[in-house]
Amino acid sequence: MSKLTKNQKTVLAKYDKSKVYSLQEACALLKEITYTKFDASVEITTNLGVDPRKANQMIRGVVTLPNGTGKITRVLVLCTPDKENEAKEAGADYVGLDEYITKIKEGWTDVDVIICTPSVMAKVGQIGRILGPRGLMPNPKTGTVTMEVGNAVKEVKAGKIDFKVDKTGIIHAAIGKVSFTAEQIAENAKTFVGAVLKLKPQSLKGTYFKGATLCTTMSPAVKLDPKAFTAE
Questions:
Q1: With a threshold of 0.90, does the pTM exceed it?
Q2: Which of 77, 119, 149, 199 would staple 92 via disulfide (CB 3.0–4.6 Å)?
Q3: Is the pLDDT at 9 greater than 80, yes or no?
């Protein structure tokens, strides 16, 4: 068995893996047990009592985090020429259509979000097999297929994220950076979970929100009491 590093020993001295923490306690603890030299991401994992194989239990949504994600989000807008200025003025990193579709076909996907107008979806569909597995395919449900491209870009830049339950009933999402204050992390987490709770299927029987954890890129997961968390 490998020896523990000095930082690992420090973490174990502060962290009790068997304990469930309040949201405020967990957010403060994360900052104490993260020793990366880079600004690590803060991630939340929620365990839901749903069966994603059933269409009425597929949980998917969007939420704008009040303190942003702390990440620079690169946005590509695929649109007709009449919408290009609107996208550029809103802060889009890349704007165009045919030239970017060609680049993507050639292997370029150096963006985080792609927004497009409904009129170009036929062309975007040509690269759906490339974008889909990377989570980049525009979708009306997440607000990335819209005529209001300027507003869509501003929302994404401000901290709007989309989330989706995986086949095991779990949602993973990055909700900030370890450089955030504990209060900022807690506020983002509460906003995120609030959005998930609003999507509870009416037909669901049993417990919907079963539990959640918070962690940073290289820290252990801190368990949250689901009752205390949703009550805060």
A1: no
A2: 77
A3: no
